Amino acid sequence: MYYQNNMKVAILGIDGYIGWPLALRLLSRGHEVVGVDSLYTRKRVSEVHSDSVTPILSMEERIKQIEEKTGKTIKFHKGDVNDPDFLYRFAEETRPDTFVHLAEQRSAPYSMIGLTQARETLMQNMGGTLNLIYVMKDILPDSHLLKLGTMGEYGTPNIDIPEGFFEVKYNGREDYLPFPKFAGSWYHWSKVHDTNNLMFANKVWNLKITDVMQGVVYGTRTPEIEKYELYTRFDMDEVWGTALNRFCTQAVLGYPLTAYGKGEQRRGFLSLEDSISCLTLGIEKEPESGQYRVYNQFDEHYSINELASLVKERAKSVLKIDVKVDHIPNPRVEKDEHYYNPEHSKLKELGYKPSRNLKDDIDSILKDVFNFKEKAMSLKDVIKPKTLWKDESKEKAR
Ligand SMILES: NC(=O)c1ccc[n+]([C@@H]2O[C@H](COP(=O)([O-])OP(=O)(O)OC[C@H]3O[C@@H](n4cnc5c(N)ncnc54)[C@H](O)[C@@H]3O)[C@@H](O)[C@H]2O)c1
Predict the structure, then answer these.
(1) Tens digit of pLDDT for each residue in 232-266?
(2) 222 pairs with which residues across the strands?
(3) What is the pLDDT of residue 360?
(4) 216-225 in b/e burial notation, b at 16+ Cβ within 10 A?
(5) pLDDT (0 to 100) of residue 20
(6) CATH class held by domain 8-382
(7) Taking the domains of the chain in order of start, what are their residue ranges?
(8) Dihedral sign, CA of 161, 304, 321, 52?
C-alpha cells in the first residue's frame, strides 16, 4: 500500500450529493478530476415533484465558478455508465489512475415502486459496474476502483457484522468467507450483486478494488462547500430523502416528525465531511496490486427514535420551533427491533480519524434548511410515505 499525490481521479456520479464535495476536496489536494454524470438523479427527483432544498447549480455553472475561484478545471463528460461504448470512450480518452464509482440509482423506495423501477435499479446498477470491470480489465488493468456499496447490504443479522469477510467453522472444517448478505430492498440487493461481481472480477483478473460499505451520510457542509459557496444537493422527499433529512425539514416547517413503525430500526451514520475524508484516504492509499478490500464506513449508529428526539431537541433550542414525534405505519418491510453491531476498524487502521458527529452537524443542517424554508415549504406534499414495500391493494405492478 502506498501514498500517491497528484493522481488523476475519475468521479462517476460527480453531480451527486457525495460526488460534488468529493470533487472539491480532491481538487484542493492537488489531484486532477474528471467527471461523469448522466444527471439521472436530478431527472428522477423532479419526476416525483421534488427537488434539492439547497440550491444546486448546473454542472456547467459549477465548473465555471470553480474555475473562476480556483483557476482549476474539471473535465465533465455527460453520459451513462450503463452504456459500454460511452464508458470505453471515456476511459480511453481520460485514462484515470482511480475510478470512484458513485453513479447508481440510490433510492431504496424508488426501487420498490414496481417492476419497472426494480428492473431499472438492478439492470442499471449491475450493468454500470460490470461495464467498469471490463473497461478496467481491457484498458486500465492497473487502475484502482473505489466503489460505493452500502451497510444495507448486510441487513440486520442477530450477530456482529464483520468488514466483508469472516471465519467460519462448519462440520469440523474452517474457511475465511464473504459474510452472508440479506438486503432489504431491490436497491440494496443491486449493491450485493455488484459486490459479488467485484469479488469475482478481482479473483479472475486481479483488479485492484476497494468496496465501501457506507452508512447513511448526513450534512450539508464541508470546508470546500463553505469556502466556494457551492452547495451539494439535499433531498428530503419520501423517495429520495433520508429519515434525518425528512425530520429536519418537517421540524423547520413545524410539522410532526414521522417515524416509521416503532422507530427502533438502527443504522450506521457518518457526516458528509467524514465520508469525503474516508473516500479521499481510500483513493490516496490504494490497495496492493490484485487486492480486494472491504471497508465498513460509518462512525455512529442511531435508532430512528434517537434521530427524531435529537432533531426535536435541537429544533427547539436552535430555531425555537416545538415539534412532536408521530409514529406512522412502516411503509417498508424491515425488523423494527433488532441487534446491530457492525465492525468498523479498518479505515482507522488506514489512518482515518473521525472529525464530526451528528450532534456537531445537526444545528447546521437545521439552519441550512431554515435558510431555504420557502423552497422546503413548496415541497411539503412529497414528505409523507406513499411508496409501500408491500401493497396488497395494488394490482401486480407492470
Ligand atoms: N448518500 C448516502 O447516504 C449513501 C449511503 C450509502 C451508499 N451511498 C452510495 O453512494 C453513491 C453516491 O450517493 P449519493 O448520495 O451521492 O447519490 P446521488 O444520487 O446524489 O449521486 C449519484 C450520481 O450519479 C449519477 N448517476 C446515477 N446513475 C448513473 C448512470 N447510470 N450513469 C451516470 N451517472 C449516473 C446521478 O445523476 C447522481 O448525480 C451511490 O452509489 C449510493 O448508493 C450513498
Answers:
(1) 999 999 999 999 999 999 999 999 999 999 999 99
(2) none
(3) 86
(4) bbbbbbbebb
(5) 98
(6) alpha beta
(7) 8-382
(8) positive
State the Cα–Cα distance between residues 182 and 184, nearest whole angstrom. Answer: 7
Which residues are bridge partners to 342 per DSSP?
161
Report CA(37)–ligand 1 centroid distance (Å): 10
187 is catalytic: yes
Contacts (Cβ under 8 Å, ≥6 apart) of 47: none
Instruction: Report the length, in residues, of the chain.
Output: 398
Mean pLDDT of 283-296: 97
- Indicate which residue's Cα is closest to atom 5 of ligand 1: 216
- Contact status, residue 39 vs residue 293, Cβ threshold 8 Å: no
C-alpha cell at 300: 455512529
Going from the Cα of 316 to the center of ligand 1, the distance in angstroms, rounded, reads 33
What's the mean pLDDT in 141-159?
98
Give nearest CA residue, ligand 1 atom 7.
150
Give the residues surrounding ligand 1 with Cβ less than 6 Å away: 13, 15-19, 36-41, 80-82, 102-106, 124, 128, 148, 150, 214, 216-217, 233
| Tens-digit pLDDT profile for residues 77-122 | 999 999 999 999 999 999 999 999 999 999 999 999 999 999 999 9
Q: Indicate left, alpha or beta for 247 from its phi (over 0: left) and psi (-120 to 50: alpha).
A: alpha
- Cβ neighbour number for residue 183 with a 10 Å cutoff: 18
Mean pLDDT of the chain: 96
- Atom index in ligand 1 nearest the CA of residue 80 equals 32
Q: What is the DSSP string of 163-218?
A: SSEEEEEETTEEEEEEPP---SSHHHHHHHHHHHHHHHHHHHH--EEEEEEE-EEE
Q: pLDDT-based confidence at 73, cuts 50/70/90?
A: very high
3 state SS of 372: coil
Among residues of the chain, what percentage have pLDDT more than 70? 97
Q: DSSP letters along 10-31, please?
A: EEETTTSTTHHHHHHHHHHTT-
